[in-house]
Amino acid sequence: MRLRSSGENGSHVFNQNLKITQLGKSGRVEEAIQVFIEMSQKNVVTYNSMISAYAKNGRIVDARRLFDKMPHRNLISWNSMIAGYLHNDMVEEAHGIFVSMPKRDSFSWTLMITCYTRNGELEKARELFNLLPDKRDTVCWNAMIAGYAKKGLFDDARRLFDEMPVKDLVSWNSMLAGYTQNGEMRMGLHLFEEMPERNLVSWNLIVDGFVEIGNLDSAWQYFKKIPNPNAVSWVTMLCGFARNGRIAEAEGLFKQMTDRNVVSWNAMIAAYVQDCQINKAFRLFSEMPERDSISWTTMVNGYVRVGKLEEARKLLHRMPYRNIAAQTAMISGYVQHKRMDEASQIFNLICTRDVVCWNAMIAGYVQCGRMAEAQFLFDQMTNKDTVSWNTMITGYAQVGLMDKALEIFEAMGERNIVSWNSLITGFLRNGLYLDALKSSRMLWQEGKRPDESTFACGLSACASLAALQVGKQLHQLVVKSGYVNDLFVSNALIAMYAKCGRLFNAKLVFKHITNVDVISWNSLIAGYALNGYGKDAVGLFQEMLMEGVHPDQVTFIGVLSACNHSGLVDQGLDLFESMTEVYSIEPLAEHYGCLVDLLGRAGRLDEAFKMVREMKIKPTAGLWGALLGASKIHQSLELGEYAAKKLLELEPHKASNYVLLSNMHAEAGRWNEVERIRVFMKERTTEKQPGCSWIEVRNQVHSFLSDDPSQPRIAEIFSILRTLTAEMKNIGYLPDFISSIDIL
DNA sequence: CTAGGGTTAG
Q: Repeats (PPR): which ranges (predicted)?
């Protein structure tokens, strides 16, 4: 055997080092580790490369471990570690490295400055920048300029830009990015014309700027003018189309692209996912030559979006590596379906939990109204961000504990507009209009202005309260503030008008939207369904399909409930089938609920019962309730009793369930049973919250609690109720035995 | 003496 010369050996190490870097850059960190382990000889570059590979793939802990145990460190090792922390948004740790390193060069300084600018700490960045006048190179200037520009501090950026000794293309592009990323396209174009030379980055910034402000025509015009568009240009344009629902055009671009990379594939998959075309998304996912963690995460998200949690979970387990984004997507999937046990299983699997996954869990408990558990997690969090605080505010507001919501609001350090929105919406939802108004004024006093979401939230609160007057006032404010063309606001307006029975207004708002999305259609369809116009709702649904908009889970809740309200049995069954077969959307309890009710009312009790028994999900109380109701109408005591048994297992404390069962027996003349149930009911029901209803008259909300002697106009109410009951009897309505006793 | 670390576009 011949001994290899040291030169050959050296070039081998050289090549392996290169490989580690490349694998790290393309997200294939596992393969990089493999190469690293198999190398018999390593030099300092090998370690440095591996540190970067780890850090670029979110494995900052491994990067640090390697850094700590490597035999010799050079300046680049220290810099790589700072860069690693920069990539992982860990500014404090980066600073720790920065202060303890033996020597610093301009790379080190620039890295640290970038850490601060990315973190929004412009003052600290500037402080560092000022500390090293002699070592500042062009890159360092550029970093500082980019920091100012990105934050929209154009004057500061411009001052440095004019001051700097040598400008390069990146300096120009950094200024340009400031304008385009802040929606200042007039200024951006001006600079673009002024630039001594342009590269693809400059062109792509312009296209992206137009995409961001929703001006697809201009984006397209500039895209076409790009001399040699690269993958970034194509992806930017593709995402622009996708985001505006123009999926066909996005598809066309994807097909035309010559140099597709992972990002291009990911973008197209994301476009399909966004349009709920999960099967097309999966086909691309299977076809693509290589997948990175974004590809996997997008697919998991896609399945979550259409409610296919099983598919999502399978995919998550098939992933070649663990990825926190995908795990968080899975968590939010479970959270949306209130499956907190499974969510928390995934949560427990994550070793280094970030804020986002904590927030997802908290949001989950909040949505289930389990505030104690939400608070428990919240208290444990060491790195709360505004999202965490805001979620807690929303949570307490939702369960009616506005005192707690306010307490959280007041305890938080930095409030953003969402914090205010959560608080104001909370007040609105709880009918505390005056407090909402007061908070809105305070918001103005703090120099903040209501934004799109302030209005969208406010309007959705009005929708859930059916508070038309306040809703209308908000609509006027929307017009005055210039948010009429915002899609979120428009959709909230549709929902509000629809819920208040003003279908004409809802339709009017709908017609004014330039780019309706699936949510706009959903709101309108649900509105028609809610107000009893089942056929129109189904008609709208068909219109929506003709327009090429893909329905989602919510669409089907709307259109199925439309069929339900209008007794369109066969159409409902057909639609339900197409939902799973054609659109591959997984039915939720709500969908089954519509169908069971629909079949039940039509007297097709066997089919209804069969559906409940055979469905994939666990039957909810609502489903048994629907079955019980149907059994009562069609006098099927046997099925009714079975449904009631199941129902009472799930909700033993709810009085209305006993009333339903009791009425059924009353109708069948089984008075012993009626009496027995009444006794049961007295024993078991612990209704803490009395039934509550409200109406809005002349800007004021009047609420009614059951058994509430303090209601000021109780006598009038009773007198009107008696009149109404008499009239109902006159036109042939026979009131239920028990409920009539309760009223009269 | 080519590799490894910093600024601008997906």
A: 43-77, 105-135, 137-171, 230-264, 292-326, 354-384, 385-419, 517-551
